[in-house]
Design brief:
binds zinc ion, 3 helices, globular, alpha+beta
Length: 113
């Protein structure tokens, strides 16, 4: 649907964007670091990776814990399909978490249609 190759992330922000590999844990670590840099210098960032769409910004408010692991976040990753919750970069980009999250979303879509 998005037209990106599996394992390639597209990072876009106001005024530009870039594509980065996201296959290995090291790739995803570098991607997360690039997203931190972009959110600090460009503001809101959109990340398209493995059919997921994330809107990423710097955490706001006094409580900045990831909804999945509870860790303090350097960037807050929101997926519109997952509701109004924020994930840390590690949980957002983790392969196992992507599969687990996708299952209930599919169930919701099928029951709504
Ligand atoms: Zn987390």
């Amino acid at each position: 649907m998005i037209g990106l190759s599996p394992g390639v992330a597209h990072v876009s922000y106001k005024g530009g964007g870039l594509c980065l590999p996201a296959r290995s844990p090291y790739d995803r670590q570098l991607l997360a670091e690039q997203v931190v840099y972009c959110t600090r210098t460009k503001g809101m960032v959109q990340v398209l990776v493995n059919d997921d769409r994330w809107l990423v910004h710097l955490p706001t408010g006094p409580r900045g814990g990831c909804v999945e692991c509870g860790q303090r976040m350097d960037t807050a990753w929101h997926a519109p399909a997952l509701g109004d919750v924020a994930y840390c970069s590690r949980c957002a980009l983790d392969d196992r978490n992507q599969r687990q999250r996708r299952a209930p979303v599919v169930a919701l879509r099928s029951s709504a249609g």
